[in-house]
Design brief:
Strand content: 25-35%
Helix content: 25-40%
Shape: elongated
Largest sheet: 4 strands, antiparallel
Distance between the termini: 99 Å
Strand order of the largest sheet: 1-2-3-4
Length: 155
């Protein structure tokens, strides 16, 4: 009788292990491909920022956010929670990756997020780089000097 009890206990332990590993692998695969979850989590962190557009990486572990005033944001899956921050102008360095579908990004305010982020296509990578470039130029640097007006600015 004791061998039957031990076999039943062993079967229960194996069943629990199989179910837990399947749940864990499904949780890792989901990532941030669900844009609704990304919007909710980013707005929870920054309730006063209006989101214009989202772009997830190919693996779904990071999302780049274009905000209403042409600022950029970043959200990354950190296994048990999501790390969100707004990228301050001039506080990021961007290079193209070797594949052409990604960006090597250095966050000067959050160096633990430095990485190469691969996107599904080169078009998506270039779109995100434009968001970061628009965020990179500070507002005073965007003003044209008044001493040399262009033809477009003349009345």
């Amino acid at each position: 009788m004791s061998i039957i009890v031990w076999c039943a206990i062993f079967a229960i332990v194996i069943a629990i292990a199989v179910v837990s590993t399947r749940m864990a692998s499904r949780n890792q695969e989901d990532g941030l491909h669900d844009t609704g979850l990304a919007i909710i989590e980013f707005n929870r962190a920054f309730p006063n920022e209006a989101i214009r557009q989202l772009q997830a990486t190919a693996d779904g572990q990071a999302v780049f956010v274009r905000l209403h005033d042409n600022k950029a944001g970043f959200m990354r899956n950190m296994q048990r929670h999501y790390s969100c921050h707004v990228i301050e102008p001039g506080r990021v360095r961007v290079l193209s990756s070797e594949t052409g579908r990604g960006l090597s990004i250095q966050f000067l305010d959050a160096p633990h997020h430095n990485a190469t982020f691969e996107f599904a296509s080169p078009r998506e990578a270039s779109e995100v780089s434009l968001w970061l470039l628009g965020n990179y130029v500070a507002d005073p640097d965007k003003e044209l000097p008044a001493t040399n007006p262009s033809a477009a600015n003349r009345h």
